[in-house]
Write a structure and sequence with these properties.
It is a single chain. By secondary structure, this protein is an alpha/beta fold. It has 3 domains: about 5-125, Rossmann fold (3-Layer(aba) Sandwich); about 130-210 and about 265-345 and about 375-410, Dihydrodipicolinate Reductase, domain 2, CATH 3.30.360; about 220-260, no CATH class. The chain contains 14 helices and 15 strands. A 9-stranded mixed β-sheet has the order 14-13-12-11-7-10-9-8-15. The protein has a 6-stranded parallel β-sheet with strand order 3-2-1-4-5-6, sandwiched between helices.
């Protein structure tokens, strides 16, 4: 039996990750019954590319007329909680892009709404489905390094991907929660999932060191900037046809500029961050994130009572050229086991396709527990939420002080 899906948020991610694949590849199990976005141009593009999905100018009207089984939420992060709650109250499941939400108040409102509802909330963490991380999970779950005591995790964004967060709405803390929530919720979720422990206490540091008002030669946006010929961060909003149609030609509806200056005084998120996390079974995490590296990727180490696992992967720079990813388990000074995982094509290293199959097709086995529930969404967001609070106050933050941790296993 087909399920009916409605969309809130005509975003590029919503189109590429959900609407277009559902229309092209899941017609046997899914009907697309509505889309709502306050920008009618972007809503129209999504609709036309996906079989003329009915367009609505009001969310409640869409729910009433289309009667979906589930709502897919790909709005600006600060609105996730609003549409999750509205979906549950309309007796619909909610499928929401990460992060779940951006602050403790919104997080608690979602928890309270779920306690009143028997519908599901699914948070779409595609990194869990990447073959490399799935292999890491399999190996760690098998106990090869024993009880995990310490984790070091570094994620580095390059000056193409990293800079883009400072052009868009993500540059505002009250819209995205900053990169410790919008971006790092992926990382915190994968770590929580790999070590199978809950975060208990967080201490964070963060600063804006590279982007923001660090140079005098800057403008409001790239399109009108007098320094476009000399700025290495110039972004041509007309060069890519999709971006031109989806954003540049839609500006007249909402004044959303996709190419704002990365050196603007308006930016209030961090580009340099580090976080320490204490976990429920005693593990300690040291995490760092920068958004202006010459290359992009990550590296991690997990040290346990029976050994150490070291892993890394790169998506730009010289180290990204290999067709495989490797990681190694060091059991003793004389014993090292090396594992090799082939790279997979497709969105997020093949993770997007696998995630869609898990969500939209029945009967897909899940032996590694890759499907993320509401608790996983909360625990990934709340680390970034707590880190932001810690950065502001200079003090560590306990999870139990900002969310009802004892109730999470029962929601």
């Amino acid at each position: 039996m087909k399920r009916k899906y409605a969309f809130v948020g005509a975003s590029g991610r919503g189109l590429s990750m959900y609407a277009r694949p559902l229309y092209n590849d899941f017609k046997d199990v899914a009907d697309l019954v509505g889309i709502y976005d306050p920008n009618p141009i972007r809503a129209k593009i999504v609709s036309e590319e996906c079989g003329d999905i009915p367009i609505f100018d009001d969310f409640d009207n869409m729910i009433e007329k289309s009667r979906p089984d589930a709502v897919i939420i790909t709005t600006v992060d600060s609105y996730h909680h609003e549409y999750i709650i509205k979906s549950l109250e309309a007796d619909c499941d909610a499928i929401v892009e990460k992060p779940l939400t951006i602050d403790a108040k919104k997080c608690n409102e979602i928890i309270e709404a779920k306690q009143r509802s028997n519908k599901d909330i699914i948070v779409t963490f595609n990194v869990r489905y990447m073959p490399y991380f799935a292999k890491l999970k399999e190996i760690l779950k098998g106990g090869v390094i024993g009880e995990i005591l310490n984790v070091d995790f570094e994620w580095i964004l390059d000056q193409s991907h990293g800079a883009d967060y400072f052009r868009r709405w993500h540059r505002y803390l009250n819209k995205s929660g900053g990169l410790l929530i919008h971006k790092a919720s992926h990382h915190f979720d994968i770590l929580n999932w790999l070590i199978e422990q809950d975060p208990v206490k967080v201490y964070g540091l963060g600063d804006l060191k590279f982007y923001g008002p660090t140079r005098d030669e800057r403008g409001e946006r790239c399109f009108t900037c007098e320094y476009k010929d000399s700025c290495e961060f110039y972004f041509d909003i007309e060069e890519n046809e999709f971006i031109r149609r989806f954003y540049f030609e839609a500006e007249k509806e909402d004044d959303y500029f996709r190419d704002r200056c990365v050196f603007s005084e308006e930016i209030d998120i961090y580009d340099t961050m580090s976080v320490n996390v204490a976990y429920s079974k005693g593990a300690q995490l040291t995490y760092s994130l920068v958004a202006y590296s010459p290359y992009e990727g990550w590296r991690a180490s997990f040290t346990g009572t029976k050994g150490r696992l070291e892993a890394s992967s790169y998506s730009s720079g010289q180290a990204s050229d290999s067709d495989t990813n490797t990681f190694k388990v060091i059991k003793s000074p004389s014993e090292t086991i090396t594992y090799e995982v082939s790279k997979v094509r497709g969105g997020h290293g093949g993770g997007d396709e696998r995630l869609r199959n898990m969500i939209f097709r029945e009967g897909v086995e899940d032996p590694l527990g890759q499907m993320a529930d509401l608790k996983a969404g909360i625990m990934s967001s709340i680390i970034g939420i707590a880190a932001n609070e810690s950065i502001e106050t200079g003090e560590p933050v306990k999870m139990a002080d900002i969310i009802p941790v004892d109730e999470l296993d029962n929601i």
